[in-house]
Design a protein that fits this description.
The chain is mainly alpha-helical. The chain is 64% helix and 0% strand.
Amino acid sequence: MKYLMGAGAALLFLTVITVASHSVDMGEANLPVALFIALIKATIVALVFMHLRWDRPFNLLVLVGSIVFVMIMLAFAMMDVQQNLPNMFDGNAPEAASTMDANAPGAPVAQVRSTNGGVGSTN
């Protein structure tokens, strides 16, 4: 019971820290700090509430292995996005913008900004 109460108190404390860190401007560090706090909270939940602290090591191996495979999958997805980044452009496609102008004049249409060497630019 003391483990459950301690874990619950730690999760409440970390939740307060998460909310407090939202109001502190740390620049680019906001996201890594929030993710680190979330990692600590997930570790507490896995160890205490999923009983991995007292379970057989094989179950911990399965959990860690699945997390590693998810990270590998996300790494491949990020590599795919980086590979196709030159073919992407900000805003609406030029055809969509002209269709919106013809069918719904005055409707808000995102402006195409060239951030990747002019690909997709209407200029």
